[in-house]
What we know:
The structure holds 2 protein chains of 2 kinds. By secondary structure, chain A is mostly beta strands. Chain A has one helix at 3-26; strands spanning 33-34, 36-42, 50-58, 64-73, 94-99, 105-109, 113-122, 127-136, 144-152, 161-170, 185-190, 192-193, 201-202, 205-206, 217-227, 233-238, 243-244, 247-248, 264-268, 289-290, 307-311, 315-327, 339-347. In chain A, the strands form 6 sheets. Chain A has a 6-stranded mixed sheet, with no helix packed on it. A 4-stranded antiparallel sheet of chain A has the order 2-3-8-5, with no helix packed on it. In chain A, strands 11-15-22-19 form a 4-stranded antiparallel sheet, with no helix packed on it. In chain A, a hairpin with a 7-residue loop joins strand 12 (192-193) and strand 13 (201-202). By secondary structure, chain B is an alpha+beta fold. In chain B, the strands form 6 sheets. Chain B has a 5-stranded mixed sheet with strand order 2-11-10-4-8, with no helix packed on it. In chain B, a hairpin with a 4-residue loop joins strand 16 and strand 17. Chain B is elongated, with a radius of gyration of 33 Å. Mean pLDDT of chain B is 88; it is low at 17-31. Classes of the chains: A mainly beta, B alpha+beta. The interface between A and B is large, with 101 and 103 residues.
Amino acid sequence: MSFRRLHIKFVAIFAVACLMGGILFTATRTEALRFQERSMLIGSSQAGDTTFYQISFIYPTTNVVGSLRLEFCDNPIPTLPCNVPPGLDITNATLAAQSGETGFTITQQTSSVIVLSRSPSATGLTASSYRFDNMINPSAETQDFYVRMTDYASTDATGSFIDFGSVTARMTVPIEIYAQIPPILVFCVAGSINDDDCQDTTGNFADFGELSSTQTRSTSSQILARTNAQYGYNITVAGRTMTSGVHEIPGLSTPLESFPGLGQFGMNLTANSQPAVGADPIGPGTSATIHADYTQANKFLLRDGDTIITSTGVTPTRKFTASYIVNVPASQAPGLYTTTISYSALAGF
Amino acid sequence: MFIARSLHRIFAASVLFALVIVAAFMDSVVYAQSTGIGFTPRQDITVRAGSSAEGALYVTNLDKKSAATLKVRVVDFTAADQTGSAELVVDTSADPTPWSLRPFLKVPDTVVLQPGESKQVPYTIAIPQKQGAGSYYSVVQYTAEGNSTQQVTVRASGASMLFVTVPGKAREQLSLRHFGPYVTAPNTTNGSFRSLFIGKAPTTIAYVVHNNGSVAEMPAGSIEISNIFGKQVRLIKNANPKRNVALIGQERRIEVCVQESTKQVRDSGGALQVSYCKDPKLPPGIYKARLSVLYGINGSSTQEIERTAIFWYVPIWSIVALVIIVAFLAFGIFKLRTVYVRYRARTKA
């Protein structure tokens, strides 16, 4: 065989091998049939409670079933190791009721596994339900846990399973009066915040002084926030431009530079040089991000309802400086122009 | 005459003195209202139809000098975008949202906090007997009262989120829209899904679900990452570590770290454990990510979402190395062929 023919054959085999490998890699494994309409009702969702679990589903086929295995885990994926949710204990569980496919009794039982067995018989496509009493919930609040269910032709849950599926439940935090301070969102706004705890603030206003048609007037206030909650926080701004009776100074709705002599009112949350006002945020809570429109130096705006600051998890203290600018034309009607800017802090969800 | 003049002088001096006192008093009556609060960011509770529950939300006045009079009201909210940012329905005349807690939730109208004082704001939730299963949520907003005639008055308000689940059969439907590695743009909460990574390995995986049901869903499950040979390289045990919620009608993006780590950050509020995504240090190659999450409230059907996504991680150095190897192989094959041709020629001769 010539080298050329050998070369062509090698390339062809290599290409086919790559193609087969790609197909095998991307192809999903054949899925066994899943129990349909699966659900679980628990009597109490509070951590540590002794309560009942009622598991319901529809057998997807009419196969002969002799046993049903229920395994309680901290994740639903059958191919992954099953870790028992801390505190969960079904050692003393009893089968209090059953409907649909019946005749089962508990034949194997540990702190996290129950095997129900019966004389093997064909299942119908009917809704079945099994209620277990004396189930002890996981001890961690907000713990998610899963029940992996598999059925078998054998009476002792051995051999290949026929159908499978999972149900999930979640523990909730009990309503209680906290003596300590668990999750909290700390937030303050002032003309000046002189510490990192919002305990020493100065004024709830900012003044421009006398407005001018030849010079930009600027001022600032400060915002501080932190949270020990995993939800993070969002801070929104609400407010309109400065008004005096029926007269108003036009507000900036998109980021724009300051132009003396034009009617403008706006703000941002960064250090500026024209005019020289404001400061960049300080503090260890660097995961709190400012909306891009409000971080452009020397550009100002104010859109009512904007979310100006966002954090997505536990966030240490971060202090922001809000810079405000105002310009008025020579034709601006005289008067006392005022506005109220409201900052609202809200947890994420 | 002298007496009259003296009396006149005394009277004028008295009036002047009184005016000075009044003026001084007016200057010192400065509007003072605390601008710093700490509050419970969020509570999740379960209340059965036909029953009621009582609870409390923690509120504290951080200001050590000024009292705080907080107006308390229940406000509805919707999702602002794909993140966990809420948009308050501030129009008090608007109809309650379909998931509003306003018909069921009672809170006090005002809360007065002395400087540095903390209180538990009590609330009562009463769910009617015929109320359908599902999710009901609103915020309890605290707003500082008071008026000011300053040019720019700044105000702070906070709001605690309340999520109430009424267990039972509910309409639950999450549709998966996207899944895969996700890259967030700097200084924004937006980004894009990518499947090819040349510079750095992906640090974040995300999935986007659209909620078409009547329950605010909190999907729970795992994400498994395996290489081209099917070997698991990373297991993200908790696919929703921050307990993100997909609100009713929302298209929600949930992000998780491929490799999460935590660091302790010293803060004025104490030491905080802050989580961040670290470089997963994946070797170059083709990877498959498998998402497996479940959702379903107590007593309702468990639904599941499964999806796989393929991504490539090909750092620059691996491309260079591959080019060098291929060039070396090509050169080697060329040299071998040359030797073989010469050998054949010699043999024929």
